[in-house]
Amino acid sequence: MKYTTNNVRNMFLNFFQEKKHTIVPGSQLVQNENSDLLFTNAGMNQFKTVFLGKKKYPFSKVTTVQKCLRTGGKHNDLNEVGYSNYHNTFFEMLGNFSFGEYSKKTAITYAWELLTHKKWFNIPQNKLFVTVYYTDEESYNIWKKKIKLPNEDIIKIYDKKNKKYESDNFWQMGDTGPCGPCTEIFFKKKKKKSYINDLQNKEICIEIWNIVFIQFNKIQKNSILPLPILSIDTGMGLERITSILQNVPSNYKIDFFDNIIKKINYKDHNNHFNNQSLYIIADHLRAIIFIIYEGIIPNNEGQGYILRKIIRRTLVHMKLIKYKKYFLYQLIPTIIQFIQPYEKKLIEKKTYIQSILQQEELQFKKILDQGVKKLLNELHQLNKKELDGNFVFYLYDTMGFPIDLTKSICHKKNIYINQNKLDKIILKNKKNIKNKKNKNCMIHITNLKLNNHFVGYKTKKIDTVINSIFVKNKPTKVIKENENGIIFIEKTPFFAESGGQIGDSGIIYKNGSSLFQVQDTQKFSNYIGHIGKLLSGIIKNNDIITAEINKKKRLCIQNNHTATHLLHAALILILNHKIEQRGSFINHEYIRFDFSYFKKIHKIDILNTEDIVNQYIQKNTVIMNNNMQFIQAKKEKYIYLKNKTYDSIVRTVNIGHFSREICKGTHANRTGDIGIFKIISYKRIAYGVVRIEALTGLHALKNIHDKYTQIYAIKKFLNINDNIIIPKINTVMQNYLNLKKNNEYLKQKIMFHKIKKIIAKKIKIKKINFICKKIDITQSKLVKKLIDQIKNMINTGIIILYYQKKEKYIFTSSVTKNIINKINAIQIIEIIKKNTNGSGGGKVELAECVGNNINNIFCILETIKHTIEKII
User: Fold this and answer.
1) What is the distance of C-alpha 163 from the center of its chain?
2) 851: enclosing H helix or E strand
3) Structurally, what CATH architecture does the domain formed by 554-705 represent?
4) SS3 call for 47
5) Could you read off the pLDDT of 825-872 as tens digits, one per residue?
6) CATH fold group of domain 5-249
7) Which uninterrupted H or E stretch holds 728?
8) How many whole angstroms separate alpha carbon 668 and alpha carbon 149?
């Protein structure tokens, strides 16, 4: 049998379908905003709530193929990719799952049958061994008595020293959540008596399947609680098992990657190209395609940051192998044809994916060019063969220039970089960033079991009970006067920041004596936390209190949120385009709305959009809110975010027949509540992404008043009326441009006169023109321009111009190209530095320095002239 990648995927699904499992689609690669993950990193992600018993799944036995991305956190394979034969950024995870349906014995038996039976993967039994968690005697006995593995092929794995539940065979999704012992199946690449010391050595053995027994819920460090049912969660990497079945030594040698690498390399497939770089390019291209397909664009935050990092890492390796045949984006159609079974869906968005990638590639090319220029300049000035780690980090942190590329260039030039020092600099920077990020750092909160309900759609004020209090990120029974903290209450009218809408502010108080000022409301896991400061009295757990939002602020927020829906609908109507929302921000002052659109937006489009929104505001339409099945909402064409996961029941917002969206946010009662809508700016923030900012109500009115005040001031200044304001401004601008043009002409004449005077003072040194002159121009750009014009007029020569700046002289030296082989500008500047105790540098044609010792400048200049004379 031919084990192609596609065959292996289908065989896995068919096997479990025969075992009465339901084949269900994997979840989206891009996680929604409420997830702890940026990207799906395992097949079990979509079943987390099922494992915890919070949700019942329609099927008790399922099998999936899950698209995964591991680039950060606990599961970070990015730095291994290309350097390890068996790690990929993007990969497919084959999985079978049981939600209380079958036992450990059944799960292990299924795995063994699929791997070893002749009908299926037909791997010889003596080529496999397993590991189990040391306390899981049940699994150990199944392998020993049912499967009949010899003792040496069943390895018990213990906890790490003094760390309970910290073991390769005790699986956990994160610091908290579903967990349990697991048994891993390994393939023997080399024959040995014992593999216990070689489990991480992939040249000797390789893990191919992990079977996890979800038995517990980890609520905090060293503390787990049993779950009501035993669930099974398994994962087997498609690329890895395919490499075993195809008998190749690497994921990158399987048919899928082999095809891609051949296409990347074409006729040079067996040439000198660096295999590691080729592996990285092939791996990252697939990841890039899927991330952009799911609606993410490169930026500096979250998922967009990861995408940008992967793209730039790919481009660095294209540069490292000096690959000039194609731009990266031009490879996309070639790669897509091999990505089965997703090819048809990807082809539909091929042009979009290419466009996003092309824009990022061109932008990064500028960074690379600038970085290389700056790095080479720095290397030229080194006194020793070592580059300071601070400069390496400066290039990376300030310019975005990759550290890998800096290292590669330095390696070729035999320049040493102290890696230990560099690591310390990077670590120090990470700590500084981490210290600034204290939001959502309280792991204790995610482990609480609270009654915590939002009642703020209809209620602005409610009497309720204090559930929990946190001060300095730790739970406490009481919060005292002037302390900052977070309060959790049983019922709350406060809306927690979500879907672009900011959290509410207001007050929590009791008995008229204790007052907690709520400055912000955020979600911590599934609980609504009220962040603020106790201004007076004390508040304790279980106190009966009153919670009251800032009604005026909420009114503005909900008006803005409804206006955002109207804006979205109006844009679809005006632009005649299926735009997709790319993000929004809604507070009490303004609206920010980002959406995908690749064509040019004209001013008239913005004015028409604004008019339509205001027309619907004037209609004073009632806003309707309903709960319905998500499936039904999709059928009825409600707008929703494609990269967000929704519950089975969703809240919908209807503004007549004009706008229908799935939305949890708070909204106005009628469109007339908004008052007025005004767009204040629109701009392109990334390729294919437009941002509109707008105001409503009194904020919009104030903006209009401010604009009128400015126009009135202009009219008064120009002494004109409304009818001629534009013609008058045009006349003033034309006069200004004429004056500017005349001024430039006069400056050029003055410059030409200066040049003639400077050239008149030239002397000859061994038949070479030599100019050394003090000037009154003190702008570096103008000095360089002056030098260029002098060089054009003298053809051959050495030029030194200098000017005084406070107690120092600034020198600029330059030589014409035809004498660089005799003397260059850097040599001259070194002479000047030596004689003036100065500092500086540059290139062979032009260099600069600052001279500190200028007390006897004329003697110094004579010395410089004689030194130059000796050189040439």
Assistant:
1) 33
2) strand 846-851
3) 2-Layer Sandwich (3.30)
4) helix
5) 998 998 888 888 888 888 888 999 998 877 777 888 888 888 888 887
6) BirA Bifunctional Protein; domain 2 (3.30.930)
7) helix 725-760
8) 67
